[in-house]
Amino acid sequence: MKPIHLIAALGLVLAASAGAAHAQGVDKLYVLDCGQGHATDRSLWSPGVDVNVAFDVSDNCYLIHHGQDYLLWDTGVTDAIADKPEGMPAPRPGATAWKKPKTLAGQLAQLGVKPSDIKFLAVSHTHPDHVGNVELFPQSMLLVQKAEYEWPNPLGVGRFKPEHPVTKLEGDHDVFGDGSVMLIATPGHTPGHQSLMVKLPKTGVVILSGDAVHFKANWDNRGVPSLNVDKDKTLASMQRLADLMAKTHAQLWINHDKPQSDTQKHAPEYYE
Length: 272
Ligand SMILES: [Zn+2]
Fold this sequence. Notes:
The chain is of the alpha/beta class and 272 residues long. The protein is 24% helix and 26% strand. The protein contains seven helices and twelve strands. The chain has helices at residues 3-22, 104-110, 128-131, 146-149, 216-221, 231-248, 258-262, and strands at 26-39, 55-66, 69-73, 97-99, 118-122, 141-145, 166-169, 173-174, 181-185, 194-200, 204-208, 251-253. The strands form two sheets. A seven-stranded mixed sheet has the order 4-1-2-3-5-6-7. Strands 8-9-10-11-12 form a five-stranded mixed sheet, with helices on one face. The protein is globular and about 50 Å long. It starts with a helix and ends in a 10-residue tail after the last helix. 38% of the residues are buried.
């Protein structure tokens, strides 16, 4: 090939790769079933309201594809529950009993995604229904708020294995550096709770609540669960999400709101 043609060909390659880079961003968001819960007293999450009213909760994980990379948001209750047909009973009265008809590992395998394909693993907070499968992904970079990572555990051990790769965040974080996936600090439920804002090309902006709010009635009434570590911070975080929604016209996807989850497409279908 003559030099001039080589230069022209190189130019084409560069233009093509620049075009590909430009087309990056999030192209798929999968909703995964990471546990099905049942609790006997809804008022634990909304003090004074719905005393002794039983209800079902969803527990979703979300897989986000960006360019060549995957981010997994939350990991649900442990896959070990799937081996028990009766599930995991509530550890104390009023707490949540869990069943796991599908494992997280199985749902990822169905999508052809290996644990080592997960580049980033971000968790909203460290309650067991969100961090139950973190160690399925020992190579994935954990994105967690420093305040959550360092929150003393009553068992006197760390909340994560010390050898797990981690980036300890202090506030909001732009995961891919292009504004398409933003971790939003929403403390209150726990000291370092965070939510996730995802910009999808067709669906628009979606905010994944984590447990900044547990179900729609709580959101509408600004109800604060009795087990939250800080009521004022919880209310400030809800307001922050409301302001972000107003600014970006975002939808709010409330992780534990089963009626809402039931209306959503679940994997292998996806949002784009
Ligand atoms: Zn939860």
